[in-house]
Amino acid sequence: MPFQLSPHLRARPTLFLIKHPTTPLKVINISPAQALRPAFRKAKVSRAHIERMKHELPLLLDRTAGKVSESTLRGHLETFLHGVAFPINEFLIQSEVRRMDTVIHDGPKRKGPVGVIIEAKTIDNPREMFSASKPNVKALHELALYFMRERHAGNTAIKQLLITNGETIYLFADAEFERIF
Asked: What is this structure's pTM?
């Protein structure tokens, strides 16, 4: 039987890029092809990796559908990330590190620098969730705070920042946060 897309995936994925040439904060809607660097677009993806993604993504979407708490969402997200892109023996994914929701360390040890910061919000509270039409919300404020704390502590290893509610994922490059904040 061919792979069936989950109902959650039928819409075309959209990424958002934050631009802040002066003021105010402006969010620009871009496609995944525009977001990827040319080198990443040329990279070959193995069949096994595609099959793993086909298996794990519907599971994540089904587990996070409906009402789930932030801690449950973080747990499901951690399981998904370990299964798809961040093997347990190479990367450490932790929740509740220095008050940050979830972090991915650059390496398998707790003392390794944080490379990715993830802010998770529940679907039940849309007032706190970031969106292109409403960027000035708690999720972005917390992510900016965590980013600035890490930079102030000397961590220059952060490369990506992410906000999610289980259905929608907003991915930001560290260079944009560095420039804006």
From this structure: 0.80
